[in-house]
Amino acid sequence: MSPAPRRALIFLCLALPFAIRSAQAQDMEPKAYSASPVGANFIVGSYSWSTGAIIFDATLPVSDIHADVQGLAVGVGHTFNLFGKLGLATVAIPGAWADVTGKVYEQTTEVTRNGFADMRLKLSTNLVGNPAMSPREFAKAPRRTIVGASLSVTAPSGQYYTSKLINLGANRWAFKPEIGVAVPKGRWDIDAYVGAWLFATNSDFFPGGMTRTQDAMLAIQGHASYTLRPRLWIALDGTWYRGGSARVNNGDPTLPASNARQDGH
Fold first, then answer.
1. Residues with Cβ < 8 Å from 163, sequence gap 6 or more?
2. First vs last Cα of the chain: how many Å apart?
3. What is the DSSP letter of 21?
4. CA angle, 185 as apex, 226 and 124 as ends, to 5°?
5. Model pLDDT for residues 78-129, shown as the tens digit of each residue
6. pLDDT bucket at 3, cuts 50 / 70 / 90
7. How far apart are CA 210 and CA 13, in angstroms?
8. Element housing 262 (H / E)
9. CA distance 65 to 104
10. CA 65 – CA 262 distance, rounded (Å)
């Protein structure tokens, strides 16, 4: 393969991890900071689907890029007393199925990958509002406005091969500090969160020994949930994110992501 088509193919294959990272930024969690009793254990599960066009630098011989990414995550969570405040720890193992199509020098190319993506860990706590309570205390406590904070961590545990252009894992750590507010109003819960993904360096990018860096990505969420009966509720959700330009060996950056999404639970 000549240098120019090879360079174009590299940029095409960068679309998959970029699309997965964009889907990650679109994670939506209604009631993420809602009060719970201490000592609760639960299983968590989520499914996500992201599809759409990806735009690159117009000077590159790449066009009509489209990514279709599906994700399934299963994990566990536990609530505990964190210095008198409610703490919540979760661990999730995600899988991903992804298809990327596009044209390189007007020739259509398609790539498919499936397997485990990077493991997700999250620690959150309520800063203002309901303190840590036993199940009996929790049942009697009034609902209050809550201000919470969390730190999400993505560990480099997913499928990754230096010799391959496309990987489901990113081969680097990522961190997301976030602050959120939850306001109860009768059967309604109104939530708003602001956070940012911060990415470490991948020092072994394709074809080996290359360095890939990525700028921070801002993420904002809003949710309106309505409780139908205990443990059954519906929600209207929205998210907006921007940033995440990437560079390989200090080369030209990719275009930053900027998008919004609405959903329901």
1. 206, 207, 208
2. 47
3. H
4. 80
5. 999 999 999 999 999 999 888 878 776 677 878 888 999 999 999 999 999 9
6. very low
7. 15
8. strand 257-264
9. 9
10. 23
Between the alpha carbon of residue 216 and those of residues 177, 223, 238, the distances in Å are 11, 23, 20
Token pair 């730190």: residue: 151
Contact (CB, 8 A) for 134 and 38 = yes
Which residues, at least 6 apart from 260, have a Cβ–Cβ distance to it below 8 Å? 238, 239, 240
Closest CA to 100 of 167, 150, 171: 167
Task: Report how far apart, in Å, the C-alpha atoms of 156 and of each of 91, 93, 120, 161, 172 are.
Answer: 14, 12, 9, 12, 5
Domain 3-264: state its class: mainly beta
Q: In this structure, what token pair is assigned to residue 212? A: 């890939």
Tokens linked to 99: 């298809």
- For residue 205, the surrounding DSSP H or E stretch is strand 202-205
Q: Is the peptide bond before 230 cis (omega within 30 degrees of 0)?
A: no
Q: Is the predicted pLDDT of residue 165 greater than 90, yes or no?
A: no
Domain boundaries along the sequence of the chain: 3-264
Q: Residue 102: enclosing H or E segment and its boundaries?
A: strand 85-104
pLDDT tens for each residue of 28-65: 788 899 889 999 998 988 888 888 776 554 434 567 77
CA distances, 4 to each of 63, 64, 227 (Å): 15, 18, 57
Q: What's the rounded Cα separation, in Å, for the pair 72 and 95?
A: 5
DSSP annotation string for 174-231? EEEEEEEEEEEETTEEEEEEEEEEEE--EEEETTTTEEEEE--EEEEEEEEEEEEETT
